[in-house]
Design a protein that fits this description.
The structure holds 2 protein chains of 2 kinds. Chain A is an all-alpha fold. Chain A contains 9 helices and 1 strand; from the N terminus they run H-H-H-H-H-H-H-H-H-E. The termini of chain A are far apart. By secondary structure, chain B is of the alpha+beta class. Chain B is 30% helix and 13% strand. Chain B is built from 22 helices and 17 strands. Chain B has helices at 21-30, 59-62, 81-86, 97-100, 109-113, 189-193, 220-224, 246-250, 256-259, 278-282, 290-297, 304-312, 317-324, 327-334, 358-366, 374-382, 388-395, 400-422, 428-434, 438-450, 453-456, 483-486; strands spanning 3-12, 43-47, 66-68, 74-76, 104-106, 125-127, 176-180, 199-202, 208-210, 230-233, 238-241, 266-274, 298-299, 339-340, 351-354, 511-514, 520-523. In chain B, strands 13-12-1-15-14 form a 5-stranded mixed sheet, sandwiched between helices. In chain B, helix 16 packs across helix 18 and helix 18 (400-422) crosses helix 20 (438-450). Chain B is globular and about 100 Å long. The chains are: A mainly alpha, B alpha+beta. At the A-B interface, helix 2, helix 5 and strand 1 of A face helix 3 and strand 8 of B. Strand 1 of chain A pairs parallel with strand 8 (199-202) of chain B.
Chain lengths: 247, 543
Amino acid sequence: MSSWDLWWWVILPYLALVTFVVGHVWRWRYDQFGWTSRSTQLQERRLLKWGGPLFHYGTFAAIAGHVMGILIPESFTRWLGVPEGTYRWFSSIGGTVAALAVALGVAILAFRRTAVPRVRATTSPVDWVALVLLAIVIVLGIVPTMGVNLFGAGYDYRRSVALWFRGLFAGAPDVAAISHAPLIYQVHATAAWAILAVWPFTRLVHAWSIPLWYLWRPFVLYRSRVPAHPTEPGTSGRRWRRIGARY
Amino acid sequence: MRVMAQVAMVMNLDKCIGCHTCSVTCKQTWTNRPGSEYVWFNNVETKPGTGYPRRYEDQEKWKGGWTLNRRGGLTLKAGGRVRKLLGLFYNPDLPSLDDFYEPWTYDYQSLTTAPLSDSFPSARPKSQLTGRDMRPVHGPNWDDDLAGAAEYAIADPNLEGLSEQVRMEFEHAFMFYLPRICEHCLNPSCVASCPSGAMYKREEDGIVLVDQDRCRGWRFCVSGCPYKKVYFNHRTGKAEKCTFCYPRIEAGQPTICSETCVGRLRHLGVMLYDADAVLGAASAKDEKDLYEAQLSVFLDPEDPGVRAAAERDGIAHDWIEAARRSPVYALIKKHRVALPLHPEYRTMPMVWYVPPLSPVTDAVHATGYHDDDPDRVFAAIDALRVPMEYLANLFTAGDTAVVEGVLRKLTAMRAHMRALQLGDPPDRALLGQVGASAEDIEDLYRLLAIAKYDDRYVVPRVHAEGSGALMAQHCSLDYPGGVADLAAHDEDQRVAAPPPPPGPAPSGGGSRFRDSDGRVRFNLLGWNGSGPVPGLFDDGSGR
């Protein structure tokens, strides 16, 4: 194992994870005001109508697929009695459907964000970083799903990438497993870690605010008046600086 | 019965001259920030007109407010909770910015930097969204004073079913102004639509607010509000709405729109209502019963039983007293001349309107009005320039009988006061027809016509006796465990203050405190260096 491998497959993931966790704690505590989806439906609705749901629901499917393929060990599906071929077909077809939805959605949204002036104007530099990383991850995720596993010879990532990934959380990452994986999987994984590292500093934090509580809470909420924190001297009332804000 | 208090407003439309002072002062106070250029917490619409945003009253399109489901239960018109969450990524009922207007400014600099030329320099309009050149095609009050009536006024959703009576030719045109703010409803559909739970109704005064720290920008409040009085700040990505100027209300002052109202047409006061009865009232089967149903929710503060229940439910005594003097209660329930705006949305709005009468009198004079003849007085109401059906569509879900009753009372008030001024004997029969005594009518006159500042605004202060302790947080000259620590600004810091240390206070300027082990110590901060220092050193008892 070279030090190069150590950096890419051990240090970088852990750095990203730490940034992810600490960053979220910091953002949650200091920037509740900036914690929003920053919807741009007000500015543009025709493209969003298709792009928004396609991208988000496609992403949910893609995340579910990653959980199945990477987090759940091969031994578990074998114990369930799922034959290898069935799993392959299910994952490549399901993955392709998700990939098409995400790809189409992100294409519409990317066009919307770059070509519609009203939407473009709301985009901060850190948003661009997140968007470029997302694009890389998505493209490099779609290529192996469709090109390798659906139409190509297939590659059993559950015996390489998945072992390394799960090992990270067990404290014993299998570097050899990932370092021998095809380059496309390696770049995909690295870009994904980069996204996790910038995640807390972008609008992506809205993912943690999916309001499931709405399903069972009372319709009308009452709150009694509470004294607010006095403002910190010299901050004119702002305890936070909004990330990526230009003003 | 659960008594709650609500600070409510009544606007007397007879007196609105459409000067937009309320809108301008409101904007200067609340929404003169980037991202809220198009946000008008208060706006004044010319009626008939499309309103703001355009045709917001067309709930078949925008799906705001509540409706009854097949079993007669109250549900959000835009659909249930699951449907909301599934539509999180695209809200089909959200108006787009073009339904409001694209905010713009002008390139004023070019006026001073333009080179010498034979032609006048011009300041070109620039979009405040993108900074690019733009052509304003719509703006706030684009249809002010019936401008473009052939296009705008005729598109007013309230004119449905009235098209034969309403003609937009100059000789037949009518109009009046409708100032609008957030209704601070008793059954707010925006609060019910907010998936994050960031919107809430304040227990003390019923003001509906958006918690800016908890709003996640899912934008369902915007579409959920049938009055479209929740706006989306396109810079911060958070919802904002009329705050009823809560900092002013807390201080016992009227809202800024009321304070600066040139026509003095706004009344503010406390209403007591039965919170347990709201849901039942909002679920009334027939839309036309909603006005009466909402009236039944309001409690009479003169009733000793109501006052006792209010005390029991924690409403401060001065608030109950304010409710007894409330001009809003008098106009809504005692005199019944104020009406809610669009009760059919079933949100139980709390900004009510005295419908306008002024356009009548002109028409009346034209038809040879004579106030000696009571039948002639009321006959004139049927010949109003503003059709009764139009007012009914606005204020009573189409029930013209209620509007007619109000207009009759207002007409009778004028006839009675005119008689009083001229020294004629008061016409008992006329008053009897509107079911009011002479005292009632004179009280109504005092409220609507004299309308002194203290009679228009009866706003009790908020009870915040304990919050002064918060001020000590950044000047905690006092000892730990004293005032500064008492600042219970966080729930986790709500601890009782420790008892004062025993013994006489030490001289020398320092103070004493009890440390975490419970021992009394001397605080050197503030010690003048000369007096004794008791307990500076450990007395050895711990060993």
